[in-house]
Design goal:
Helix content is 77%, strand content 0%. With 110 residues, the protein is mainly alpha-helical. It has four helices and no strands. It has a domain at 27-102. It has helices spanning 2-23, 30-47, 52-74, 81-102. Helix 2 (30-47) packs antiparallel against helix 3.
Length: 110
């Protein structure tokens, strides 16, 4: 009985901690996030998962975020915490859009 309770407690602890470890993605710099998104967009175009209009749309949004970052950096050269959080939110949304566009069953016709 004691072993069962201890085993259940250990399993419970492991299962409780697992989502925390999985959600703790490594921090990426703004430049790393930009490079990763560019790579995903290019790969989507090459594979046909992104149509040309979809790629043009997400690249336009990407350029807007890059311009915003440049504007933020003009005022001191470094990003504040709020600016970084804003860029992270925008990159997150764009990343979700790239994922959705790549998985929406629209394929480029060759």
């Amino acid at each position: 009985m004691k072993r069962t309770i201890i085993s259940l407690a250990a399993i419970s602890t492991v299962l409780t901690a697992a989502p925390l470890v999985a959600s703790a993605a490594p921090w990426q710099s703004v430049n790393e996030r930009q490079a990763n998104l560019e790579r995903r967009i290019d790969q989507g175009v090459r594979s046909g998962e992104l149509t040309r209009p979809e790629a043009a749309r997400v690249r336009g949004q990407f350029r807007r975020i890059a311009r915003l970052e440049a504007n933020y950096r003009r005022s001191g050269g470094r990003l504040t915490g709020a600016e970084r959080a804003d860029l992270d939110r925008r990159f997150d949304r764009l990343s979700e859009q790239v994922y959705a566009q790549k998985h929406d069953d629209q394929v480029r016709r060759y």
